[in-house]
Design brief:
alpha+beta, OB fold (Dihydrolipoamide Acetyltransferase, E2P), six-stranded mixed β-sheet, 6 strands, flat
Length: 165
């Protein structure tokens, strides 16, 4: 009797699993044919670099940039390619770049290993001039650094003790 109940439960479980598989299968339903997954290019991850322009090659649409590699704490150079999809902030095109300009570049690495710029932004010199400057400090107004810290603070004079008559 127990064996029959076990066989019935196993049969019902298998029937449920097969029914679910048939119900959720998408065979023949609006399947878009495409290349096998191995042939699709992986999604390129956006990279970022900030540095100084060393050289511009307008004929080959390339920019050589000197930047600081934070992992090795050393200066390195990178070649960035531009194309018609590259966007520019604070300039119209790469033709306006010149050596010694400081730029920020968002780029991707293509399957061929080319660093392709997606966005280039130039740091304008007037942005640095817009930073407010501190007023000069008057050395006469500064507390004496040699005096003890207690002496530098203004403290009220001690109250005189009350005299009882």
């Amino acid at each position: 009797m127990k064996i029959n109940k076990g066989i019935i439960l196993i049969s019902v479980g298998l029937l449920v699993l097969v029914s679910i598989n048939i119900a959720f299968s998408k065979e023949g339903e609006n399947i878009i044919e495409g290349p096998p997954l191995q042939q699709l290019a992986p999604e390129a991850e956006m990279q970022w670099v900030w540095g100084e322009v060393l050289l511009i090659d307008p004929a080959n649409k390339k920019i050589v940039l000197k930047y600081l590699d934070y992992e090795t704490d050393s200066e390195k150079e990178i070649i960035i390619s531009v194309n018609e999809l590259t966007r520019y902030d604070n300039l119209a095109s790469s033709d306006q770049l010149k050596p010694m300009d400081t730029i920020s570049v968002d780029y991707i690495i293509t399957l061929e290993g080319i660093n392709l710029a997606r966005n280039i932004s130039i740091e304008k010199p007037e942005e640095a001039a817009a930073i407010p400057q501190m007023a000069p400090i008057d050395p006469q107004a500064m507390p004496n650094p040699e005096a003890p810290a207690i002496m530098q603070e203004e403290t009220p004079p001690p109250a005189e003790p009350e005299q009882k008559p």
